[in-house]
Amino acid sequence: MTKKMKKRTWRIALGGILFIAAIVTEKLGSNLSENLILGIFLVAYFIIGGDVVKRAVKNIGTGQIFDENFLMTIATVGAFLVSEYPEAVAVMLFYQVGELFQDYAVHKSRRSIADLMNIRPDYANLITADGTIQKDPGEIHMGEKILVKPGERVPLDGVIVKGATSLDTSALTGESLPREAQIGQTVLSGCVNLTGTIEMETTKEYGDSTVAKILELVETAASRKAQSEDFITKFARIYTPVVVISATMLAIIPPLLTGGDWKVWIYRALTFLVISCPCALVISVPLSFFGGLGGAGRSGILIKGGNYLEALSEAGTIVFDKTGTLTKGTFQVTQVLATGCEQSELLEIAAYAELHSSHPIAVSLRDALACEMDETRVTESMEEAGYGVRTVVDGCTILAGNTKLMEKYGIPFENKESIKTVIHVAREQKYLGSISLSDELREDAIKGIGKIKQTGISRIVMLTGDRTAQAEEIAARLGITEVYAQLLPADKVEKMEEILASNEGRGKVIFVGDGINDAPVLARSDIGVAMGGIGSDAAIEAADLVIMNDQITKIATAIRISKKTIQIVKQNIVFAIGIKIFILLLAAIGMASMWAAVFADVGVAVIAILNAMRAMKRLND
Questions:
Q1: pLDDT tier at 323 (50, 70, 90 boundaries)?
Q2: What distance in Å separates the CA atoms of residue 594 and residue 532, rounded to the nearest whole number?
Q3: Does residue 181 contact residue 164 with C-beta atoms inside 8 Å?
Q4: Is residue 581 pLDDT above 90, yes or no?
Q5: N or C: which end of the chain has fewer CB within 10 A?
Q6: Residue 20: phi, psi to the nearest 5?
Q7: pTM of the model
């Protein structure tokens, strides 16, 4: 409980005791002075609601008149003027109780976001010639070595150079099971070292690290408001002055026209004001979105703002990149067909051609060579996006890539249909042969696609640069019927444009990619989702939503969270407005007392807040 909440609780408790004492005194001590009874009610009123009156006066001085503090103050002060002392104090008491519920709900919701902020490292153990010294992570440079002891949080991204351990990655991925890490493996900042002491060589400075990127994302998420939130803010600005004017007319016009009792109509107008306070909407709608963002974060899903959370609930089409998204992106060499050299030489030439490439296929070819590589043998290297690479190895120009690369340079080759990825290799315009590689589906790919279909997504599309036969074989196993293959990066953007154009009336379009080579398509879609975003700067920058642990099932979880959040928002809007309009009408014709007004204001707000808190609950995959 915060200091503010404790202070409000004590005021409510003390003021409530005096309020009860005043009522008892009024009922049992009829011979006591009315001024004494009024005095007890006033003391109780100012203990309970003095801060509300103070804020109302302060806001009037700055020109911010029509807010809930003004409504509460004018209604309760008016109740005192017409001698309705118990109602005046009761309205302020229950209003403060409602505010306490609001504080608790907001505090709990903020904690759900704050839990994500706990990944911020406090220090790093820098390894020096004289031992280890603690330094601020921001002072550590790339390539320096750090020591991470059991129980410490990993301060910077790096590679393990000594030791082995288990890592708690729950703050990043939402996964409770520890992950084993050994020499040569990359460790991301924000994880907690559980068992062994490890030495790491840093691969990024703090400003570019995973933890810094995530903290920046979380800190800005709440500032991006959904359309529903903007609507409520604009609604309150117009609604409040209209209500004050209506209450004023209700207090003045009927007595003037009918000669009625002024006190009766003023009381009705005051009741009208209490009912009209829009706290239930102004509080519960942003709280619902805040809770949804926090619940998603605890599930290992980072959403950049309420606007994207809302858009996600409207999605009707989802487009997947294949390699690294639906498949693991870790290729295994399955066949080497050499026609102009030995098989071992063909594999060596291909590996050297891909020496400076970061593509998963290039990594797999180098791994397949399984020997120390001499970088001096490669003097030139140029990657041709969507085709392959052109490299100078040992003074000879090497081409390694797909069929389009061979066709581009006019090299005759034998093209056989295959469901595997095939890399063709040529040296000095002479075709040397091909290397076949296979890529595996992600373990949860089939399950993930099934769960996405259950959320109501009606159209699932797959885009890939791979050959048609391979793409169709993968799509068939996943149950995807719409496939576009052999696409260059520019072709993917063009295809996304076509999908967006043909998708009118079918909801928003989600694009899911690995975040490395798909930034243009991620940015062009209605909602860009990056898989395996941890460690990928492109993912965090270009995507609107980042799945922290590669699991496709998390996409369905994100959609379910968004739909649940929007459902809660709509429930609160309909409930709050419906109840208020009903009791406003009753107040206008004299059938609702100020006690009914208290329920309509505070009661509705509390119910709406409790409903909004359901958005914080973490959903299971």
A1: confident
A2: 56
A3: yes
A4: no
A5: N
A6: -65, -40
A7: 0.71
H or E stretch covering 46: helix 34-61
- Confidence (pLDDT) at 557: 93
Token pair belonging to 597: 């007004």
What is the spatial distance between Cα 548 and Cα 188, in angstroms, rounded to a whole number?
A: 11
375 and 312, same structural domain?
no
Strand pairing class (165-168; 192-193): antiparallel
**Helix, strand, or coil (residue 419):** coil
Q: What is the residue whose two structure tokens read 């043998």?
A: 377
Whether the CB-CB separation of 418 and 434 falls below 8 Å is answered with no
Nearest of 466, 425, 419 to residue 337 by alpha carbon:
425
Among 29-38, 83-92, 110-119, the range scoring the smallest mean pLDDT is 110-119
Q: Are residues 453 and 460 in contact, defined by beta-carbon separation less than 8 angstroms?
A: yes
How does DSSP assign 84-128, residue by residue? -HHHHHHHHHHHHHHHHHHHHHHHHHHHHHHHHHTT----EEEEE
CA distance linking residue 398 with residue 340, whole number of Å: 13
Q: Given a cut of 90, is residue 320 above it in pLDDT?
A: yes
Q: Write down the H helix ranges in 502-592.
A: 519-524, 537-542, 553-588
Say which range, 103-112, 234-243, 532-541, has the weakest mean pLDDT. Answer: 532-541
Structure confidence at residue 535 as a pLDDT band (50, 70, 90): very low
- Give ∠ CA 427-431-432 in degrees, rounded to 5: 80
Q: Which residue has the tokens 């998963």?
A: 360
Give φ, ψ of 507 to 5 degrees.
Answer: 90, -175
State pLDDT tens for residues 376-429.
899 998 888 778 899 999 999 999 998 889 999 999 987 776 667 889 999 999
Domain boundary among 524, 548, 572: 548
Output the pLDDT for position 108: 67
* pLDDT computed for residue 118 by the predictor: 64
Tell me, yes or no, whether 315 and 283 share the same domain: no
Residue 199 phi, psi dihedral angles, 5° rounding = -105, 135
Which helix (DSSP H) or strand (DSSP E) does residue 336 occupy?
A: strand 327-338
Residues 142, 185: one domain? yes
| pLDDT score recorded for residue 348 | 93
Going by C-beta distance under 8 Å and a sequence separation of 6 or more, which residues neighbour residue 229? 285, 286, 289, 306
pLDDT in tens, 173-186: 666 668 888 998 88
On whether both 308 and 165 belong to a single domain, the answer is no
Residues 386 and 526 in one domain: no
How far apart CA 340 and CA 75 sit, in angstroms, is 93
Query: Which range marks the domain in which residue 526 is found?
Result: 301-326+442-548
- CA–chain centroid gap for 85, Å, is 48
Say if residues 572 and 285 touch (Cβ distance below 8 Å): yes
Q: How far is CA 468 from CA 420, 441, 474, 492, 518, in A?
A: 10, 17, 10, 15, 19
Confidence of residue 564 (pLDDT cuts 50, 70, 90): very high
Tokens 């406090």 sit on residue: 122
More confident residue, 409 or 103: 409
Return the biggest CA–CA distance within the chain. Answer: 116
Instruction: Indicate which residues carry an active-site annotation.
Output: 321
Q: How far apart are CA 393 and CA 379, in angstroms?
A: 7
409 and 456 share a domain? no
